[in-house]
């Protein structure tokens, strides 16, 4: 192996990364035994763990555990999505077993947000990963944290039309239904603009205010 165990292709992917991407656990184990580095990143700033974090399967979990047991970092940020971590990916893909492992045994930071202000719960909410949302709330994640536009996970759930998550955030997480984003968006306003009737009906039943809607009803999302 003239180029060495950490040889890269034109995109900066190492042999280990390619094996991880294709879920070839035996080959990954072999490369690690030969000294392959698990912390290297490709030209997009992605490490091997980024590529298996979202695999919601026993093989995916085994790959994550193998990498983390050999020095990978659950909080390592990438270079293409302004600071997305393997934990963010696992949350967005609904890989709950991986999420739990990252958080409970590997120091995964559920509050870490990328440069747009998206933390783990935002990824779970936007991709409608209800089980992950439940788990993150049970671990004490901040329900009313905001992204770069001042929007909360509840507002995000309203925009994406995820009624089950909306109800859970309000009834079990104590989410503030009146929070106003820096661009003026509220949960009610989001439901109206995106035509989320059931969500709108639910919010109004919960006593959400409507008086500030008169100020500015239509604006780009």
UniProtKB/TrEMBL annotation:
Pfam families: Ank, Ank_2, Ank_4. ANK repeats lie at residues 11-43, 44-79, 82-115, 116-148, 149-173, 183-211. InterPro entries: Ankyrin_rpt, Ankyrin_rpt-contain_sf, Multifunctional_ANK_Repeat. Gene3D superfamilies: Ankyrin repeat-containing domain. Keywords: ANK repeat, Repeat. PANTHER family: ANKYRIN REPEAT-CONTAINING, PROTEIN HOS4. This is ANK_REP_REGION domain-containing protein.
């Amino acid at each position: 192996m003239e180029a060495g165990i950490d040889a890269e292709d034109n995109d900066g992917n190492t042999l280990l990364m390619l094996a991880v991407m294709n879920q070839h656990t035996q080959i990954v184990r072999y490369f690690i035994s030969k000294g392959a580095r698990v912390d290297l990143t490709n030209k997009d700033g992605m490490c091997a763990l980024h590529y298996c974090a979202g695999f919601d399967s026993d093989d995916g979990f085994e790959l994550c555990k193998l990498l983390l047991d050999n020095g990978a970092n659950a909080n390592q940020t990438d270079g293409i999505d302004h600071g997305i971590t393997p934990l963010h990916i696992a949350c967005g893909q609904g890989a709950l077993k991986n999420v739990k492992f990252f958080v409970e045994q590997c120091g995964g930071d559920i509050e870490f947000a990328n440069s747009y202000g998206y933390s783990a719960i935002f990824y779970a909410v936007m991709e409608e990963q209800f089980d992950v949302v439940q788990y993150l709330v049970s671990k004490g994640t901040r329900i009313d944290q905001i992204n770069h536009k001042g929007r909360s996970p509840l507002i995000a759930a309203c925009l994406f039309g995820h009624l089950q998550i909306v109800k859970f955030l309000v009834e079990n997480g104590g989410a503030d239904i009146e929070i106003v984003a820096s661009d003026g968006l509220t949960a009610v306003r989001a439901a109206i603009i995106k035509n989320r009737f059931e969500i709108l009906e639910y919010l109004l039943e919960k006593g959400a205010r409507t008086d500030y809607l008169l100020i500015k009803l239509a604006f780009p999302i």
